[in-house]
Structure formats: structure tokens, C-alpha cells
Amino acid sequence: MAIERYIAICEPLRHAQICTVQRTYFFIGFIWFICVVPDITDLFITLATEPIGFFHSSVMCLRQNIFKDPVLLYKRQAFDAIYFSLVFLTLIYTYLKILFAARAISSEKTSIQKARNTILLHGVQLLMCMLSYISPSVEVILNMIFPGRILEIRYANYLIVYIMPRFLSPIIYGVRDQKFCRYLRRYFIIVQCKSSTRVYGQEEDI
């Protein structure tokens, strides 16, 4: 998304030429592939190193209980660090270029401020989604600080890393939309009026 917006704003005349449907499908498949490769290699290494009896045993469905080889832990940390660095540098570069381009194009302070706010919102959204790369390491550190609280740590980690970014994004963009915001205010006013009318009616009955 960051690269597409960078091309649309910084290279508008070449946007239709660069961002074609075929290239979009290709890059979606490529992203899926590089995300699946680490897990597939973990699976093959586990199949090759673990005895047959391990696959008939009952264990809690946790990554460290299934992929127990220490090499796999180091490999995952290395992949997470590489992915996090690449995505972070891409976000910083593209959004800074977009911000400078928007500032150079528009001379009105209001337009510049709106563009900056939009860019910051997109950046915050993507940075929140990037938390999944560092969540395993954070979980290990928190488990060392708060031993015996692993279930609570995992629950909070799941809410913050996976639920919150996907929950906040539609709310933020919806509230920024003027038409949606107007209908949302009207809805809350109607709800408040109905609740106050109900309370007033109950008081009269009493």
C-alpha cells in the first residue's frame, strides 16, 4: 500500500503503467510466498528431525512445543528482523517522499495539513501491523519479567498486535469521512434522545 501511494503521488503519470493488474497479482503472490517460506522450512526440518512418536503425542498447540529445534528459533528471529527492517525502511522512505511531494505541490496550509494527517494515519496503521514481527520477542521478554503470566501475556499480545490495528483502522478512516461522521453524530443524538425519553417515561410511571 505504501509503495502504491508513493507511485500514485510521486509518479502520477506512470501510475497506470506501473500498477497494472498483472503486476499486482504477481506481487501479492510474491508476498504470500516469502511469508510462507519460513514456516514451510520449519515444517520440513521438524519432519526430518523429530521421531515418529512425536507426531502421535498430545501437546499444547504452541510454536515452541512443535518446533523445538533451537536453530528454528534463531532462524525465525533472523527472518523477523529482516522483514521488519525492510518494511520499516520502505515505510519511512515512501511516506517521507509522499509528504515532501504533497508539500511541494500544494501551497495551501489546509491541504498540506490534511495530506500530512492522512500520511501519518497510514503510517501509524502500517506500523501497528508491523508489531507482529516483534511480538514473539516481546512475549519472551515479558515472560521473563512476569513469570507465570504467560496466558495473560499471550492474550494481551493477541489483542494489541492482531485485533487492535484491524479494529482501529476502519474507525479512524470512518470518523475522518465527513458524511459518515455526520450520520454517526445523528445516530448518537437519536440514541441519547430515546434513552432520555425512556428514563423520563419511567419516572412518570413512578
Which runs of at least 5 residues are low in confidence (pLDDT < 50)? none
Q: How much β-strand is present in the residues?
A: under 5%
The residue-averaged pLDDT reads 77
Total of DSSP H or I helical runs spanning 4+ residues: 9
Oligomer: single chain
Q: Sum up the overall morphology in one term.
A: extended
Largest sheet: none
Q: Report, as a whole number of angstroms, the end-to-end distance.
A: 59 Å
Number of strands: 0
Q: Could you spell the SSE succession in H and E letters?
A: HHHHHHHHH
Helicity level, as a percent range?
over 70%
Radius of gyration: 24 Å
SS-based structural class?
mainly alpha
Kindly describe this structure.
The chain has 206 residues and is mainly alpha-helical. It has a domain at 1-129. Helices cover 84% and strands 0% of the residues. It contains 9 helices and no strands. The protein has helices at 2-10, 15-18, 21-49, 63-66, 70-105, 109-129, 131-145, 150-176, 178-205. It is extended, with a radius of gyration of 24 Å. The termini are far apart. The mean pLDDT is 77.
